[in-house]
Amino acid sequence: MRPKTLRRRVGTACLIGAAGLLLLAAVAHAFLQRPLSSDHAIHIAFGFHVNLYHSFRNDTNDASGFGQDIRVIRHIIDALDRLNAQGVPVKGVWDFDNLFSLEEILPRHAPDIIEAIQRRVRHHGDEVILMSYNNGMVSAMTADELRTAMAWAVSNPQRSGVADLFDTYSPIVRPQEMMTTPGSFAIYREMGIQAVALYYSATPFDAFRVFTRPLSPAEAHNPILYHDPRTGEEMTIVPTYHFGDLVDQVSLRRWVNRLRALQLRGELNHDALIFINYDADSELWGGIDLPRGLRWLPNTGGIEALVREVSDLEYVRFTTVGEYLADRPPVGTFHFGQDTADGSFNGYSSWAEKADATRYWTSIERNRRVCAAARRATALSADDAIKTRISAMIEQAVQLRLRALSTTHFGMATPFLAAQRQEVADALLTDLDRLSENLEQALRTHLQQTLNDQAPSDDNRAERLDTLMVIGTSPAADSGGHRFISMPLPAATDMRGRFHLTGTDGVPIVAVPLGITPDRCGAHRHLFYIDNARGLADGVYGLYRSKTNPANNALSRGAVSASHHGLANQRLTVRLDHQGEPEGIYLDGRRQVEAGSLLPHLVYAGRRIEVTDLVVTTHTAADGGSATLALSGTLPAPGADAISNGRMVYRLSVAAHLPYLFLEGRLTYPATATTDRIKPGVPGLERTADLRWEETAPAEIRFAPRATPRQPPRVLKHNYLGVTSAYALDYFRHDRRNLDLDNVNNHITATYAAVVADRHGLALAMDTGLQANFAFAPMRMAHEADSDTLAVKINPFGTYHGRQYRPPTTGNGHGFEATLQAGEQFAASAPTFNGVSQNFGLMLAFFHGPELPADLQRDLIAYARQPLVFSMRHVPAAPSRKETTAAAPCGQIEHRQADARLQDDNRIRANKTVPAHQPEMPLLLGLRVVWANLRALLAAHFR
User: Fold this and answer.
1) Most CB atoms closer than 10 Å: which of 448, 504, 521, 635?
2) Coil, strand or helix at 389
3) Looking at the structure, do residues 437 and 487 belong to the same domain, yes or no?
4) 264 and 286: one domain?
């Protein structure tokens, strides 16, 4: 047989064989795809998150304010009514803030919206669930604040609660900004709340997807039980989704069909719930006005198109969350330890890492401290008139503080709030400061008689410097006693000799001076450590200085040292290099902190700007009980648009026998011209900034110990409910790109945060009387590929920027991209620090093991929550209030050059436009959603 003929026959046989295989495959496919049956259904609920009080818009009934909310909500209601009239039984799930939306804005500007939702609840089965009364930062509230915010969400004296307005509601919470913290679920359960809706989103606008194991299809579309193994706390969680997840799944219909296929194959033996919940002001509910040829695109036609997309499917049921949960228990159990929020980096960056956020929170924290001290003081008083007066002031403060706790005053608009919102927040916090000052003055007047009546007797062996009333600032008595106190003393006070405090029992308690620090108003105060096993109880004390020769004291015998080479006590050493910069911090000879730490820097247009002209001075206390290094220098203004250089003065202190380092910092950032436009051409919202600011780090700490992917770093934290918890930085289990985490901020910090790597720990507490922030210590984790280890940095009172976390997904990943492009919260917060001044106090401590030792935790909390100290001899002057925007009144953060409101500035660069991560106009946002949908459809088609 000729070779050509053989080849032809072999080729023919191959073709016949291939055709046969194809035929067999087609038959097998047809057989496998035979219609299967399932008794289960796909349930869909649409949730509308109503909050007309915005961080990125104003308080006006127009496009720059809540006018957009009113327009879109009316459209939603009309669409639901129209669908119902056509026989489609779709229902709405509504959650509201009460104070701003239901109590103030809607009754005045759109009462028809409240009336329409009342009608829909009565006649169409719409459901009302809870948010919080004040759209508040619930994860950073005290227990009393949280209980009030949730109770008033149901019913309140102003009759704006959901029970007041709608008669009925479901005991389900959709927290504002998805904020939760350990302990909050227990309070919810105590108040009768049965479930919490949280985003389980495949986008960077998420609550917990990255933090837990991947949920099964049944768990991801059903209630699931949260269980905290440390505390036993439990809560039913409803996995919740938004428009980004619709893009990730291509369309709602494809998502439904995917779940249906799982049901038919027996891989999903449950009903499934898709709960889409999103801001009620979103243009995506109204639909995007597209050319006729593109109107077929999914996710762009608004609520009505979403419903019609699936209304013809016989296995789809329209429902509400409460209706679905009524007879369906949780299908699984899971846990996460992070404090959740749906901001940038899946956490608190969008709210905590602005300069103003720290200023505002310090005022809130101060008011809490003063109110707590007033309650403790008046509880011991027999004067009913004083009690009544102070109680009335406390109640006024509580109401104002609830308003101030709105998340809107902190974000999520980034970098800046809308100009009018910032003005409102400034005024509100100024009023709160004034209330704190008035309450503190009333308390001082009340306690003056007690100081006179109970003053300890003189001690012949010591000089009495003052008589003090010490009152705790925690809501409950501190069992460990006060271990740090700050008090005013004249600048000329002779600090030589030993100091002690003596109470009415006559027993002396050693007080170790840790240096002079300016208080929040710039006046000098002296910080003392109470060297006593029991600490210091509330009460009246005399402050004494010993008249004996300090050289005779055992403390003076080499216990501490300070020189241009460093600072040390018996266990802790800070070493300086030849330029005066910290080379490292050592505990018992082992390096704990690397070079490059403690001094401020910023990242500007990709360049790291560091301190120059560093000057070092030293001081050792006369009794040898403490030593201090003072570091001062210049932080140069970067770029051609520089206005003025920055300046830093830091004091590092150690005390004898105490393995802690104390840092008191006074920092002014450099000022640069604000020549970039944010929202250009948008009336009422346009403003300027210098968007080349990328990161700020007042005192970054580079932790020396390394962790490994097998045993990743753990973050330890202590929240405002008094709950201690932890979480691991193991997000790389979902995606190896998460080995590098540019910003980690899922730790609400009432007092301290800590990190553990390889059983070595670093803990950091803030002096909340000086400067406070509810999430003050963002971290960064970097993977070192050569050694396959993980390094962690902590950036107290600073901000990091970079790449978002990568979540697991069952979709195409385009929802992640669309959300990232559309979300303004992903911008850097660093521009808010332009020209700002800060004054902060930190305590650093190191430990061994996976958990904080009890005595260290006690001291960290005591440092953060120092008592109020009232002096008989040294009454501080009332702080002056500057009425300009150049300085915050008696504030911890002072604005010098960076107000960032739109100004007529000839230096504004021609045709400068906002970067892609800044707020977008609806048309541009729509085009991006369209592009994401096109990519998703093409990817699905060719997969």
Assistant:
1) 635
2) helix
3) no
4) yes
